[in-house]
Amino acid sequence: MEKKPCGCGNKKQENNKIVKTFSEPPIEKVPFKNAISMVQGYAMSMVSRGFSDKKTDKTSKQLRVLSCFGNKNTGGELPPCSHLKPSSTDGKFYCGGCGCGDRKQTWLNGNDTEYSKLDYPKVNCPLKMPGFTNYEPSSPLEAKEPQSRKNYIEKMNFDAILQTDVTEPEMPKEISEMFDKILEAQKNKNQP
Fold first, then answer.
1. How do 84-86 and 93-95 pair as beta strands?
2. For residue range 142-174, what is the model confidence (pLDDT) as tens digits?
3. CB 114 within 8 A of CB 53
4. Cβ pair 49, 41 in contact under 8 A
């Protein structure tokens, strides 16, 4: 890894290939304040999920996936968040910045039958990244080199965001039952 001769830190070299680097703000660590905000954030997330396992919309989840996992795995240039940590469970990841730890309820990825942390209708990010409930837009300084990960996501083409692969949120049970009743009523109406 090498910085450019100008010292700006904008590019580094990996395997003789120049790679763009991104900045990331530090997480504010105030022990008592963080403990209270963690409890409040957890309560907010649980209430938003409700008893019927409500999930966020697809676009919000796509933004959250980009914010946590980046897009390098699909040929893009955005690396994963520096706080992304591998779980002790193979194939699972959790946020090392929020303080929730490595538990099934805090995994950031899952399949279509699992409820991941990114599925909650309301969930906070310690970096206040796009897609999360506590998202705050980047400052003009974050657009300067090295560009912040947040600013990069904000400036992404919307079609590129929509190409981000996520597990589809399942339809809440009460809505599914309502559609079933409508279809049944239409079927009965059309029978002689």
1. antiparallel
2. 999 889 999 999 999 999 898 888 876 555 556
3. no
4. no
